[in-house]
Amino acid sequence: MRGRLLSTVLALVAAAGAGCGKGPDAPTAPARQATALPSEAGRLVGGGTTAFERQVRALRGTPIVVNQWASWCGPCRFEFPFFRAAAGKYRGRVAFLGVNSNDSRSEAEAFLRENPIPFPSFYDPSIQVAREFKGGLAWPTTAFYDRAGKVVNTHAGAYASQAKLEEDIRQYALRGA
Questions:
Q1: Whole-number Å distance between alpha carbons of 69 and 71
Q2: What is the DSSP string of 114-147?
Q3: pLDDT for the residue 176
Q4: Res. 158: pLDDT tops 70
Q5: Of the candidates 60, 36, 66, which has an alpha carbon nearest to the alpha carbon of residue 149?
Q6: In what order do the strands lie in the sheet with 64-69?
Q7: Where are the alpha helices (DSSP H) in 19-104?
Q8: Pick the residue with more confidence: 10 or 139?
Q9: Per-residue pLDDT tens for 19-56?
Q10: Digit-coded pLDDT (tens) for 64-93
Q11: β-pair partners for 96
Q12: How would you classify the pairing of strands 64-69 and 95-101?
């Protein structure tokens, strides 16, 4: 119930901000789409590659960072807080998506309850979604999509620090912004 209430409040705040003019901090239509994701925040969603591709298309105009992870993956667990912090810092400018690959649904959901994130994760037991962005060969893997919805970089392995992740966000997701 609290999650739905928070989602509703966030949606209302985003909608109210949409009509506040064209100042330097005024959100654009793609940025409003990126802030709409909290309705699925912290959830493991299904739908396979079709749902994932639909989400990437819906976010066109906004750069996207995709983090492939698994509950059993130690390096994934290590870097998870970096993605949570980055998603908060870049909210409205960059969309974040997770892809839980080669994992059990129950273990992934338990991990998300213990480690909440402000974006959804697509459940990918057969690694089909991860292959959409050259993932599925290493855990974790991070993909960066440009505003046109094209993969511009794939980073295999864990980020050693929050600073390194943010460096790549600036270089690949926000370049030309």
A1: 7
A2: HS--SS-EEEETTSHHHHTTT-SSSSSEEEEE-T
A3: 67
A4: yes
A5: 60
A6: 44-45, 121-124, 95-101, 64-69, 141-145, 151-156
A7: 29-35, 48-58, 74-89
A8: 139
A9: 333 333 333 344 444 444 556 888 999 999 999 999 99
A10: 999 999 999 999 999 999 999 999 999 999
A11: 65
A12: parallel
Structure tokens at 156: 């295999």
**AA letter at 113:** R
Amino acid at 98: G
State the Cα–Cα distance between residues 22 and 34, nearest whole angstrom: 18
DSSP tag of 173: I
Distance CA 88, CA 117 (A): 9
How many other CB atoms sit within 10 Å of the CB of residue 22? Answer: 7
- And the tokens for 102? 């080669």
Q: How confident is the model at residue 15 (pLDDT cuts 50, 70, 90)?
A: very low
Global pTM? Answer: 0.79
How far apart, in whole angstroms, are the C-alpha atoms of residue 79 and residue 163? 11
Bond preceding residue 140 cis, omega within 30 of 0: yes
